[in-house]
Write a structure and sequence with these properties.
The complex is a heterodimer.
Chain A (H helix, E strand, L loop, with lengths): L3 E10 L9 E9 L3 E5 L6 H8 L7 E6 L4 H10 L1 E4 L11 H11 L4 H14 L15 H13 L5 E5 L7 H16 L3 E5 L3 H7 L2 E6 L2 E6 L1 H7 L6 H9 L7
Parallel strand pairs in A: 3-7, 3-8, 5-6, 6-7
Antiparallel strand pairs in A: 1-2, 1-4, 8-9
Chain B lengths: L1 H11 L2 H30 L3 E7 L4 H11 L4 E4 L1 E2 L2 E2 L2 H9 L5 E5 L3 H19 L20 E4 L5 H31 L31 H16 L1 H13 L2 H7 L4 H30 L14 H25 L3 H19 L10 H7 L3 H13 L5 H30 L2
Parallel strand pairs in B: 1-2, 1-5
Antiparallel strand pairs in B: 3-4, 5-6
Helix pairs in contact in B: 1-10, 2-7, 2-10, 5-6, 7-10, 7-11, 7-12, 7-14, 8-11, 8-12, 10-11, 11-14, 11-15, 12-14, 14-15
Protein name (chain A): ABC-2 type transport system ATP-binding protein
Keywords (chain A): ATP-binding, Nucleotide-binding
GO molecular function (chain A): ATP binding; ATP hydrolysis activity
Chain lengths: 250, 422
């Protein structure tokens, strides 16, 4: 686990009209094969960081590379090497699960029989084969989450960004999703994951970073972070200790 | 290709969208054409009963009746329930809208006209000494006569003008014929000295149109291209909603993070919606050509201009798509994009001459009309349909429409890039 996949250097973001930085001089390296948990209260800067890394917004200062690629010089290669699972169901409700996946797969250059086979296998792997011809709008929340995940991994990205991938799903879907992510990770995919489920992060992540006020406050394995706070028994204790008990309404 | 397929699938599964895009414009076209055609025909085509109040009882009333009997579209009504109509009743019936027009002839119109003309003829002949006794008679005072016309208050001004001109011409003819007849009688040589009473100078409307196609400026010839354009530009609404939906439901995030360029995404939308606009256009043509006759309307005449009409529709579609993409890009919610798109389309249609021909607009609006892409397209349609223009006649319009597409797309892409740097 020595090869750097994501290299972030002094990354800052100040939104137009805002008084403070959403992200302030954040530097971070994420290594190949990691499951990196990006944790923090609401408004801490997690979504801003993910949005910048995915090319959705531009940073104010600083730089980063993913797989050695940057948006300035090799945007297409960078984009081809990442996948993103948004918190929203980023799917077309009136299209079937298969039609959605065929479209998103094609956006990554997959085509023809190879695409169709890939889609069928993906649907099968998350227990959706029997529902491939049904419109997404008829699916349960858990089924939508699974399709949402599959749409991001058809092209086998080197890095997968997940924003709250298990929010609002039943236990069975949650387990299926986490198992699937585990298998992806074992096959070499680096995962960057944000969640408010700290227990889930504690079990799932190999390393976590806690962001607050746009800055990286702590970084380490879940165990090392827990042991760094006296009396802490879980990541939740570490999190409360670092960020306080007050509400974070943004 | 997959983008186009996706757009088509999304549309095919949106029943409301299909109704808005394809069914509503056809209903609108039929309704508007029927309404306008009725109004048009009230001027030129349909049958109309006209009340005649004959207080004269002389020759002039008979000649007016003869003149009206030659016209298949007008019938004179001189009695109601077997009784002659008086002026009060005629006025009331026209005011109530039961009739559009009443003509009231004054008393002694024929006899006084004869007296008036005879005195004038006698005076002229006396100066030449053709009649020795004429100058010895004392002239009788004859008051000028008025033929009253009562119009339905709802009658169009153009119809009034046409009727007034027609009656004025009829009265002038009667007067001149009376003068000729009086000269004949005074000269005392009866049928031997025959005056030509026929009108010597007439006019003929010459149409410089291609003889191979009969172009009649009917409601159909105006409405089919005009409302097809309105329908084409109305795709601004579903297209902008479609783009806003992509943003709100998160699919735009996937598209923006994929290696496929944003231009490819826009290309997919453009091709899909231009195809839709062409389908709309052909459906409108089909309605004009095949459905109009069944509704008692003049059929739309495509002639041999199908290709040129399609070309104008294609570039109009591009202009509409550009505008739709721009609104979809700028708007954050459907609540913004739908009313903005609909209002803008209606304004561009109104200013562009879809409802009221540009030449009838006030000067200020005529100047504004040239800013509307619908006006460019409509002018191109008229160039082809009414002036039989070739491809060169529509090149300026399609260049303008294409420039509009490029400009709107450029603004949309620039805005989108700028938004990324918030």
């Amino acid at each position: 686990m020595s090869e750097i996949v994501i290299h972030i250097s002094e990354l800052s973001k100040k939104y137009r009209g805002a008084d403070s930085f959403a992200l302030e001089r954040l530097s971070l390296d994420i290594f190949r094969g990691e499951v990196f948990g990006l944790l923090g209260p609401n408004g801490a800067g997690k979504t801003t960081l993910i949005s910048i890394l995915c090319g959705l917004i531009s940073p104010s200062y600083g730089s980063f590379t993913i797989q050695g690629f940057s948006y300035g010089t090799s945007a297409a290669q960078l984009k081809a090497s990442i996948g993103i699972v948004p918190q929203d169901f980023a799917l077309y409700p009136s299209l079937t699960a298969k039609e959605n996946l065929l479209y998103f797969g094609a956006m990554y250059g997959l085509k023809g029989r190879a695409l169709s086979t890939e889609v069928d296998q993906a649907l099968e792997s998350l227990g959706l084969a029997a529902h491939s011809g049904k419109r997404v709008q008829t699916f349960s929340g858990g089924m939508k989450r699974r399709v949402n995940l599959l749409a991001a991994v058809l092209h086998k990205p080197a890095v997968l960004f997940l924003d709250e991938p298990t929010v609002g799903v039943d236990v069975h879907s949650k387990k299926a999703i986490l198992d699937y992510l585990q298998r992806l990770n074992e096959s070499g995919t680096t995962i960057v994951y944000t969640s408010h489920h700290l227990m889930e992060a504690q079990e799932f992540c190999t390393r976590v970073g806690i962001i607050e006020s746009g800055q990286l406050w702590r970084i380490g394995t879940p165990d090392s972070l827990i042991s760094s706070v006296p009396g802490a028994k879980s990541l939740e204790d570490v999190f409360i200790d670092l960020t306080g008990k007050g509400f974070r309404d943004v | 290709m997959m983008s186009i397929r996706k757009e088509m699938l999304l549309l095919a599964r949106d029943t409301g969208g299909i109704v808005i895009l394809f069914v509503m414009p056809m209903i609108l076209l039929l309704a508007v054409t029927m309404v306008q055609s009725g109004s048009f025909d009230s001027l030129l085509g349909s049958h109309m009963d006209v009340l005649l109040v004959d207080n004269d009882g002389g020759d002039i009333a008979k000649r007016i009746q003869d003149r009206f009997s030659d016209d298949d579209n007008l019938s004179l009504v001189t009695t109601l329930d077997g009784k002659p109509i008086d002026e009060l009743a005629a006025k009331r019936l026209v005011h109530e809208g039961a009739y559009q027009l009443a003509i009231v002839l004054p008393r002694e119109l024929s006899s006084d006209l004869n007296v008036h003309v005879k005195q004038n003829v006698d005076n002229i002949l006396a100066e030449f000494d053709f009649s020795s006794d004429s100058t010895q008679k004392k002239p009788i005072a004859v008051a000028p006569k008025e033929i009253k016309l009562y119009f339905d208050p709802a009658t169009q001004a153009s119809f009034k003008t046409a009727v007034k001109m027609s009656i004025d011409k009829l009265v002038s003819n009667i007067e001149s014929q009376t003068i000729y007849r009086m000269f004949q009688e005074e000269l005392g040589e009866g049928a031997d000295r025959h005056f030509q009473e026929q009108q010597f100078i007439s006019f003929k409307e010459v149409d410089d149109a291609d003889d191979t196609i009969q172009t009649i400026p009917t409601a159909a010839q105006h409405n089919v291209p005009a409302w097809a354009l309105f329908a084409i530009f109305f795709i601004v609404v579903p297209l902008s909603i479609n783009i806003v939906k992509e943003k709100s439901q998160g699919t735009m995030v996937r598209i923006r993070t994929s290696p496929t360029s944003y231009a490819h995404f826009l290309f997919g939308k453009t091709v899909s919606y231009v195809l839709i606009s062409l389908i709309q256009f052909y459906l409108m043509l089909l309605v004009g050509v095949y459905v109009f006759p069944y509704m008692g309307l003049h059929p739309f005449q495509v002639g041999h201009y199908f290709f040129l009409l399609s070309l104008i529709a294609l570039f109009s579609g591009l202009a509409a798509v550009g505008l739709g993409i721009l609104i979809g890009t700028v708007a954050s919610t459907q609540e913004q994009s739908a009313p903005l798109g609909a209002t803008l389309t209606v304004v561009l249609a109104a200013v562009g001459g879809v409802w009221v021909p540009v030449f009838l607009m006030p000067t200020m609006m005529q100047k504004l009309a040239v800013l509307s892409p619908m006006n460019w397209a409509l002018s191109a349609f008229y160039d082809v349909l009414l002036r039989q223009g070739g491809i060169m006649s529509i090149v300026p319009a399609i260049l303008l429409l294409f420039s509009f597409f490029i400009l709107t797309l450029f603004i949309a892409v620039t805005y989108d890039k700028k938004k990324k740097t918030i």
